[in-house]
Design goal:
By secondary structure, this protein is mostly helical. The chain is built from eight helices and two strands; from the N terminus they run H-H-H-H-E-H-H-E-H-H. It has a two-stranded antiparallel ribbon with strand order 1-2. Helix 1 packs parallel to helix 3 and helix 4 runs parallel beside helix 6. The radius of gyration is 24 Å and the shape is globular.
Length: about 270
């Protein structure tokens, strides 16, 4: 008698993958957000040196969250939006309030106007950056990036306090005014600033490259306020210098968005 055919095995139950929030990169984003909020609180308490240092800490943490997400392959749309909101707090609102509470209030309405120009520039800069993803050269930023702009403001505050500059002098509030407006306007400019995204952490480097990193740490540690402010001043001017060089040689602006090619409809469609 022929044996009955074996029963077909039931297919395994489908496993639904939940859309969760990746913890590791968003921890760095949360830490950067906390540093920006801490800077605002310290400015309200008239502790401006701590506020400036907190903004630099936020800049370091903000630079780590994206790289951690790429290294661990945990990028998400939630992380991108959360990072933008964190950047607006840490590099838009916090530097403007710190500068205003420290010295710009001495100028009356001109002081809060300068602070608002900076804050609005940061918001426009972040919105334009999100809108231009995928249509710009990744090697360059279009306009001064908001973390560098915040470092320019925080570095000036830290430098003045550390070197005991007299903020009651007539020229000091106007220097702060000019620097704040320059940072805000440069964020929404079209000047190309080198992004450094072509450098990958996973790529091996020669021994001299590691030696340069060690020397850079030693150089910054000699006098952090002066060294950091000087470096970011050079970076804040580099975009305009490179833009002028490109124009002088008849080359296009590398940071200008390239429009996406129109998608052609498939053959046979109306």
């Amino acid at each position: 008698m022929p044996s009955a055919p074996p029963l077909a095995e039931a297919p395994p139950p489908l496993k639904f993958r939940r859309r969760g929030i990746y913890l590791l990169p968003n921890l760095f984003t949360t830490a950067a957000l906390f540093a920006g909020f801490f800077a605002i609180v310290q400015a309200m308490n008239q502790r401006f040196e701590l506020a400036a240092i907190a903004i630099f800490a936020a800049m370091v943490l903000d630079g780590m969250d994206g790289r951690v997400a790429r290294l661990t392959n945990t990028q998400s749309a939630f992380g991108e939006q959360y990072d933008s909101l964190s950047d607006m707090t840490s590099f838009g609102v916090a530097p403007a309030l710190v500068m205003y509470e420290w010295i710009l209030h001495e100028l009356g309405r001109w002081g809060w106007i300068a602070a608002f120009v900076y804050c609005a520039g940061a918001a426009l800069r972040l919105a334009r950056f999100n809108a231009n993803l995928g249509v710009v050269d990744k090697r360059y930023f279009q306009g001064l990036p908001s973390p560098a702009s915040a470092a320019l403001i925080a570095g000036f505050v830290w430098l003045a306090i550390d070197n005991k500059l007299h903020i009651k002098d007539v020229w000091m509030p106007w220097v702060a005014f000019g620097l704040t407006v320059y940072a805000g306007v440069t964020m929404v400019s079209s000047a190309p600033f080198y992004s450094g995204k072509s450098f990958q952490l996973g790529r091996s480097v020669p021994f001299w490259g590691m030696l340069l990193v060690v020397l850079a740490f030693v150089f910054v540690s000699t006098d952090p306020p002066i060294v950091l402010f000087s470096l970011f001043c050079v970076y804040a001017l580099s975009g305009y210098v490179y833009w002028a060089w490109q124009w002088w040689n008849g080359r296009p602006n590398p940071a200008k968005p390239v429009p996406r090619a129109p998608v052609e409809p498939p053959a046979g469609s109306e």
